[in-house]
Every structure is written in C-alpha cells, then in structure tokens.
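step: validate -> pass
step: tokenize input -> pass
step: predict -> running
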Amino acid sequence: MINSISPSYPNNNKLSIFYVNDTHGNTDNMDGLYVASKTFDKKVSTEGTPSLKLSAGDNYSGADVKKNDFVMSMFTQMGIKYSAVGNHEFDEMSPNFSKTIKTNGVNFVSTNLNIDASNELSSLIKNVAVEEINGEKYGIVGLTTDELKKCASSEEAIQGINVEGGDKAIQLVQAKIDELKNQGINKIILLSHCGYDEDVETAKKLSGVDIIIGGHSHTVVQGANNNKNVVYDKDGNPTIVVQTGENGQNFGVLDVEFNPNGVLTKINNEVFKTSDVKSPTVNFLKDSVMGKSPVVGKIVSIDPFPQNKRTDPCGWSNFICDAVKSEMNVDIAFMNAANIRKIPELGVLTERAITETTPFKNTLLTRTMTEKEVVDAIKFGAQSLNAKDGVPGIVQVSGLKYKADRQGNLLELSFVDKKGKEKPIDIQNPSTTKTYKVAYDSFLADGREYPVFDTTGKEVQKFDLLKDQVTASYISKMPEQQKQALEIKDDGRIQIV
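step: predict -> pass
step: emit ->
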C-alpha cells in the first residue's frame, strides 16, 4: 500500500471519499452500506476532513421500479452525490430512469453517452460536474461502458442512446478535463463504468485525471499499489484506480492529499465488508416502502454464490432452471449464467428474496430445438470458459448434464428425462431430426449475447411469466415439510474440469 508518493506541503488539500459500485439494487446489503456511510460521516466530521460520496454505477438492476426507487432514496439519504451511468441504470427504461434522477439527490455523469434530444435523459445526465468543498473545486467526469448495447436488458431500453468507445471516448473525456483545467480546476475524478483493466489503461492515456472510481468488472481492488492500481498519466503524474466488487458486499474509503498543483501526494485506499455493519432499521424501511413480501418457504442450507457467476456451476441456478422446466412442462430449461446476481440468505425465503436473485424482467417462452441446436447452445456457452472474464458465460440447465474443460471444449453431454434417466448425446454427430421442447427467456431469445438462442424466424410460444414467479409457484406445490426445509445444492449436472 502506498501512503506517500511525493513530498507533503503545509497547504496540501485533503479529501476523503466513500465509494461504491455495482450494488445492483441488493437491498440485503443496503443496511450495511447505510450504517457504513453514517460511520464515515462521523469519522470525517471528527477529523475535520472534507469528504465526498460517489458511485461508479449499476446502482440497481432489473425493472422493479419500486425497488429501484427505494435503493436510490437510500443513496440519497446516505449522501451519495454523483454516480456514473451503468448499463443496468437503463433496465427500468428511460422514463423511469428520468423520474429516478428527478426525485432523488444523486447526479448522474457520463461524458461518452449520446442521447437523442427528444429523450429527457439528455438534459438530466451531465457530461461533467464541478463540486466545491470548503472552497476547493473538484471536476467530475464520467464514462459508460461501450458494451451497453450488449449488456442492456433489451434493445428497447436503450433506443436512441449510443455510446462512444475506444479512442473517441478518451478524446471526449480529455476535452472535458482540459475545459476544467482552463477554469482553474486541477483535481479531477473520473467515475467509470467500464471495468478495472480498461480503467487502468484509460488512466495512462489521459492527462490530468487523479482518481478513477470504477465499476462493471466487479473487481475488488484493495490498497494502493504502485504500477498496479496506482498508474501514471501522460504527464507522469499518479492516478489511483479503485473498485469494490459487486452487490454492495463491500464499500471503499479513499483518503487522498493533493499538492497545490492538484497532483496526488498521499493515498490510502481501503475496502471493507458490508456484512461487518448491519442495522435492522433499513430492513424495516424496506418493508414499509415496498410492502411486506409473502413467505414461500425456508432455506436450511444453500451452496455459496460462485466466485465467478459466469463460469462456475451454481446450486441456486440449478434450482431455478428446475422450476422453469417443471412449471413450463418442457424437456429442457436454459438460463444464461450471469442472470443470477445473488443467492438467497439462509432462513425465511420470501417472494422478494427470489426476485432479487434474478431481477431482470425477461419473460419466458417455449419452443422446439433439435438435438444439434441443443449441442450448439451448450458448446457456445462453454467457449466462455476460455474467454476474458468468462463473458458471456456458460449456460445453466435443467434436463441436461454436461462436462467441459477450462479451454472451452464441450467433452460430454447427456439428456436427463423427467424420470431422471440419463441418455448420452453424441456431441460430434448430434441429430438434426430429434427434437426437445425447451424453455428460456426473452434475453436469450434476442440473440445479442447468445446468437444460438435467437428466435428470429422460429415458432415460439411466449408467456407473460418471469423466472422468479415460476420459482415461487414451484415451491408452493411442494409438500409443506419440504418447503420448510429447502436444501439448495449443486448436484454436479455441470462439471468444469
């Protein structure tokens, strides 16, 4: 950890930043974040240190407007003043995102978004902001991932919204930094929802950026390490790049000091676990604002959330796929691995807790697929095992078992019928005439991340049903004794070797 990187001066400017990223609307951790922010307030007040609270975007996920409004109202109460624009900010569609901005105290900043003038967001999202604290001015610029089109919940959600990427994005940010410097503002913070590796490279290409609060890649960046997350810009001055992971599991506190020229002289960065600070007050507020959620069962044991949700098997994903297969009365159910954003906690399981694990409002459909199409789908997902960060991710399943290696090769595949009988599939020569009835959601069906599931020109039956709804229904049909003793385990249907 780097605590000092150049000489101190008597009139150096100190700043303490409380930061979060990719909380994804995880209300289970909102109480911890709230308590942590209040503890931070007491600390900086006692020390007399100027402070700022920031987010790197994806503050919520999914189209549950009531839940998203609750999350943003909590951010407002916590005092988070500025946020990057993440891809999930558009899950609830532009009109609702606009309402969120207007009714809460968080200011959204993005320098590389192009939004049609007819869209109210064009006037609500700023490409640069200036924050004055104790007479010192800080410039704040923002970057949104150029993967927005691929990551958005639907094409409709980002209609009329485009993102500049690559060198063009760098040029846009640099132009705003230069404008700020011309105004005498030499302390610059970039709120970036582009991913840790990209942020590190961005810092090297810019001149004058001091701090990058990042998100999107869900990376936990602890400390301040030279030539790792402390890198040097085109002028040879240091830039600190930080990030806290995802789902509100952590929060960060960054203490810095600038010399009179706006160059960082001291850095202390720490990431803390939210679980270490909890408060029942926020859960009470959640029930008050969103309503008490019906109880569907009780979990007595559950496998932990995978370290990499895109590439590792997940017991809760198995359970949801089983629910979809059963409730939709199909042979096979598919789900993209990244669809699951958390697992429920042990104890009472409510409908809301299920919804928060899969917050995207992607409706279900059924169709017929040939054996070859099924094999192609599993092979396509398996290729993610050999891709950077596992993007887009393996395919979670019910009604199938498969084995793949870390190089992205599918090794074995079997169909498992409704009686549990396993039948091997020849993955080298799959049948083009044998068919299965399958179910998956509208996200897979649009083919943006998984072209093999594209339903264009296919005969499909669409349902106004969501995965969380059918999961709750699936549990409701279980015997009472089973409902009250749910055990969620990875049964080995997907093996990665």
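step: describe -> The first strand starts at residue 13 and ends at 20.
step: cleanup -> pass
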